[in-house]
Amino acid sequence: MRPTKRAADVWDSAAFSSIFLALGFFCSQAESTLAHTQLTRTVSRLSDKGKSRMTYCKTCELINRRDSNNAPLWDCIYRTQFWDVVHNYQTSLPGWLVLVARRHIGSIDELTHEESIELGILLRQVSMALKEITGCTKTYVIQFAEMAEHHHVHFHIVPRMANQPENRRGTNVFGYSGVSEEERVSEEVMNDIAMKAQKILISSLSLADEKESFKQE
After folding, report:
1. Does the structure show a pLDDT above 50 at 82?
2. pTM of the model
């Protein structure tokens, strides 16, 4: 006959089994908690970085520079209550101007009635100024607000020259933008265009204001 286990032996075996199971459970829980904590911290860091990328706006930074009177002439051609007129600083096409909303908005439907009225007037006046300065046949008006760090409503007002190559017409005009520093319009040329545009806009818009005032009287 096989000897039977004593009660103490049975208790010891059961007790040790329970202890090992408990230790295994707590270790598993500790590892799970640690892993969860590490995952939470990683997600939090990524979320913070994502928020930083989403909230940073280069366009707003440039507006603040204008507000501080630290912008060069080409980046501060004409300012109204709601819009800034500037020269594209990454283009090889002289006269590529940009109309920038002075408050941060991501889409056109967010414009107020007053901003919309001023926008319409400026699109026409800036286009007229570019015709006079560059001799272009017309202007392209484009709005995407999709470029990284520029998710901010702004309108490209681009001179379409009479001799513009076929491969630079329509949306292909963006082949003139985002070029290397060596290809970009020089600051001297941008400032020269800015000075001429500023003079025309001040004159034409002041005259328009006077006419409007006269009508109201």
Report:
1. yes
2. 0.72
